[in-house]
Amino acid sequence: MPQDSNIFLSLGKPVKDEYGRLIGEVVSFTVKPNGEVEHVYIRRSDGAFTKYPAGNLKFNGSEVIYISDIKAETASFCDQIPLIWRKDQALKELYEKKKISPEVYEDLHNSFEGALNQLKTEAQALLERIDKEIERCNKEIKELNYALVHLEVEHEIGEVGDPSYQIAFSTIQECLKRANIEKEDLESMRNKLSNILLGETVHRPFAKETGESIATEPSLPEPPVVVYVKEAGESSI
Question: What are the residues whose beta carbons fall under 8 Å from the beta carbon of 23, sequence distance 6 or more?
Answer without folding.
Answer: 14, 15, 16, 17, 42, 44, 45, 66
